[in-house]
Write a structure and sequence with these properties.
Layout lengths: L1 H43 L6 H18 L16 H24 L2 H9 L2 H10 L4
Helix pairs in contact: 1-2, 1-4, 1-5, 2-3, 3-4, 3-5
Length: 135
Amino acid sequence: MRKFLAGFCLFFFSLSALAAEDLPLVAGLKALGGPIRTIADETAKGSQADFAALGKAVIEVDAVWKTAMTDALDVERYGIPAAEHDEVRRTVRLMDMLVGYAADAWKRGDHGLVLRAAGRLPEPYARLAATLDLH
């Protein structure tokens, strides 16, 4: 019985370790839900956007995204079919690029570029969330 319990504990801890390794991207995407909605709402207003709210959301997305990308993306661990690996990697690179552009534009005070870059964020976010079954 002790061997069974010890084996079960080892198995359980190994599964927990795998889940913990996947946590940064999944947790990051979950945390991005609110700021991405704010970005979508504000960028839809165009030049009438509340730039304080938009800037706050862009800064939050930048911080969360950097945390989520601390580990290299291993798409196989997320159970993504092999046929979708390249598309997921492209989507992650697109998100990375857009987050960087929006954050840099906000730091420079370029509201037009913030609107353009941030306005494109909801679509790749939605694709990643759907691929990882987070909706």
